[in-house]
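Assess the record.
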Amino acid sequence: MTTTRETMTGMRRGTGAASSGLIWLPLTAFVIFADQLSKAWIVQHFSLYERARILPVLDITLMYNTGAAFSFLAEASGWQRWLFVVLAVLVGAGIIAWLGRLRGREHALLCCSLALILAGALGNVIDRLRIGHVVDFVYAHWNEAYFPAFNVADSAITVGAILLLLDAWGESRKGKRISS
């Protein structure tokens, strides 16, 4: 049984809640803020489908997505909005619980990836709850081949997923070195 003194000593050494993966939540908050700010600016300054060429392969244009990634289920009758909200909230709760069990500095890459995925999920949930659809505006293309429009939240999810894969790859390599 640990005493209060041992618990306090453990926290000072960085084993308590202050050193958990939850220390990465400010990154989540920053990305959500940047996502919502960029979407608000686009909605304020662009008409639906208005396009501004930034690079030969990149346009900024206001689009709305009622579906998920790549407009999956966008043509459904409206029930998908609530499905995506519930899924994002459940995944978000799982990520927060996972972050709470990790050591934030020891597992920095994993925590960073989870914080970015959480930010992206919540950024898009805010849109779904507030206006019923997600605001997308980054439109990449090559000649006449267009990638589905996306936003800062989608970018955070993508970068987070890549970092998650890099962390898993690094952990598997570390495991192979230990077993050799």
Strands lie at 51-55, 58-65, 134-142, 145-146. The chain has one domain: 18-67+74-179. Residues 60 and 111 are 31 Å apart (CA to CA). Residues 152-179 form the longest helix (28 residues).
